[in-house]
Design brief:
single chain, alpha+beta, Beta-Lactamase, six-stranded antiparallel β-sheet, five-stranded mixed β-sheet, 65% helix
């Protein structure tokens, strides 16, 4: 009976022990799961805080990129950061509602971020309306203080979460210890329970092992992505510097040389050449090359000899032996695999040329997207340089005669007088006026007069020495600067011009216009003056004396006769 009672007590006790162990295991497991969730939640909050700081830094980087390059691509990056930040801040606030201190910290962080975005937008607006210098001036200490405050606020919040993380990790360890103790306490009372607990733990361990393997794989993938991101960031920095250098280039040759060096560093082991189309678009010429090419390419080619120029899009070959290569590319050696790429260059709707690249194959050439980006920048730079040169010529050339205009005359005369003065050389100025031009215009119309003026301009250009400068001074009046020419040489040259003008046969509307004559006045440095304006006035005075004396003649400046001292 006592045994039975003892057995019952033992059974009851065992049952109570099992119940206690079960309850303990259940409670401990729930605590362990809750603690694990809290730890994961803390990591998640830290990640969101870091992501907010990263987006602010991205916005600042995009602002700097836009200020330095003016490229709208940086504005897109900036807008993406601006759009993401409110969502990230809202998500962060929702995830820390159970922590009043962190809620206050998050509100302060949100205020600082909004303030910093307003500062960035203010600088961008000033840049768009007033330019780079004004934008630089607008960047004041408030921006740096706001950035520092954001960084300090992020550090405060992360430290708070790290404190919580330590507490929650300790609680998780205590829950695990409780589970372990309960498991060992139940071993003497039931192998079945132990086996069951063991099975559960083993299943959990296997799940964790699988999770760890997935985490390791994700970590490797993340490391690879980070390396890729670092390479992309380095490429962007290089392209940013390259774009800045292109904008400062003074000539296409300088831009091409910088491009060759940049592409050589961006595409190691890849040889290349840049071809430019001539103005007539009938031929492309190899202007600059770099690296050791695995195949030859012709120095000159017709546009139809390159598939990229024909189609207006990149032509890529992973192996020259297995594709339609461009006619300008040579045949590689037997057994050698060569990959090539021809990337067209165009700007403002016009083809400029193309980039040729070659490297070891088979397989596509690496980092072609970087090369295409560089070619886009080079195309825009070359187009801008050509436009700038065209505008410069328009600003100093008279469109009717093709001669320099009065503005260029005044600049050049001062420069040439200074040069001749340093070398102790003379300089002469001719003022030339077509005789009776108003009457000629009245008889034959302005179109006929323009034809005569254009012919006189062509005559002056054809008879100039390399150092002489001919300008249209205004109306029918022309000026010629003769560096290193004294009055005797200038008088002889003026007589030749006068005679040549009188013999001009100018065709107009299918028949020649009547011949015209010209009167010419001259003044010489330093005899007649040492200042450009003085020489022009005295040459003009001599010109009017030549007209008073019957026209169609040359007159040198004479102070008593011209009434000027």
């Amino acid at each position: 009976m006592q045994q039975c009672a003892g057995s019952k007590i033992a059974l009851v006790f065992s049952a109570l022990v099992f119940v206690a162990i079960g309850i303990g295991v259940f409670v401990g497991t729930r605590h362990f799961i809750a603690d694990s969730r809290l730890v994961a939640h803390t990591h998640e909050v830290i990640g969101r805080i870091d992501e907010i700081q990263s987006q602010v830094l991205d916005a600042e980087s995009a602002e700097r990129g836009y200020l330095l390059t003016g490229s709208p691509a940086y504005l897109i990056d900036y807008q993406l950061s601006v759009e993401r930040l409110p969502l990230l801040l809202s998500t962060l606030s929702k995830s820390i509602t159970d922590n009043p201190d962190q809620t206050r910290n998050a509100a302060k962080l949100e205020e600082l971020v909004h303030r910093r975005l307003q500062q960035i937008q203010h600088v961008v607006d000033i840049y768009d309306s007033q330019g780079l210098e004004a934008a630089r001036t607008a960047i004041n200490q408030n921006a740096f203080r706001t950035t520092s405050a954001i960084r300090e606020q992020v550090r405060t919040m992360v430290e708070e979460e790290h404190t919580l993380l330590v507490e929650r990790a300790a609680s998780s360890r205590r829950s695990a210890d409780l589970l372990l103790g309960l498991a060992f306490a139940g071993i003497p009372f039931g192998l079945a329970v132990v086996a069951s607990v063991y099975g559960i733990l083993l299943s959990e361990l296997r799940r964790r092992s699988r999770a760890e393997r997935r985490a390791a794989s994700a970590s490797l993938q993340l490391a690879d992505n980070l390396a890729q991101l670092e390479r992309s960031s380095a490429d962007l920095q290089t392209l940013g510097r390259y774009t800045g250098l292109l904008q400062s280039c003074a000539s296409p040759e300088e831009a091409l040389e910088i491009s060759a060096r940049t592409l050589d560093s961006l595409l190691p082991g890849i040889a290349g050449s840049i071809y430019l189309l001539r103005a007539s678009n009938d031929r492309a010429e190899n202007i600059v090359s770099w690296g050791l090419p695995l195949v030859d390419t012709t120095a000159f080619l017709a546009p139809g000899d390159c598939w990229a120029l024909r189609r207006g899009q990149p032509h890529l070959l992973e192996d020259l032996h297995s594709g339609a290569s461009c006619p300008h590319i040579g045949i590689p050696a037997e057994g050698q695999s060569v990959a090539t790429a021809c990337i067209p260059m165009a700007a403002q709707g016009q083809q400029i040329g193309f980039l040729f690249l070659c490297g070891p194959g088979p397989g596509p050439l690496p980092r072609l997207a970087v090369a295409e980006s560089a070619m886009e920048q080079l195309s825009l730079a070359l187009s801008n340089l050509r436009l700038r040169e065209s505008l410069r010529l328009q600003s100093i050339r008279d469109p009717l005669t093709g001669l320099y205009n009065r503005r260029y005359l005044e600049e050049s005369l001062a420069r040439e007088i200074a040069r001749c003065g340093r070398r102790n050389f003379p300089l002469s100025v001719l003022m030339l006026d077509v005789d009776h031009f108003k009457q000629f215009n009245d008889t034959h119309g302005h179109a006929g007069g323009d034809a005569v003026l254009a012919a006189v301009g062509q005559l002056l250009s054809a008879r100039l020495r390399g150092e002489d400068i001919a300008c249209r001074y205004g109306g029918e009046e022309f000026t010629v600067i003769l560096p290193e020419s004294d009055s005797t040489d200038a008088h002889r040259y003026a007589e030749e011009l006068r005679l040549a003008i009188s013999q001009l046969a100018v065709p107009f509307s299918g028949k020649p216009l009547p011949s015209v004559t010209a009167s010419i006045g001259l003044a010489t440095y330093p005899t007649d003056g040492v200042v450009g304006l003085t020489l022009l006035r005295k040459a003009d005075a001599a010109l009017y004396r030549a007209k008073r004396n019957g026209r169609n003649r040359v007159a040198g400046f004479d102070a008593p006769l011209d009434g000027m001292g």
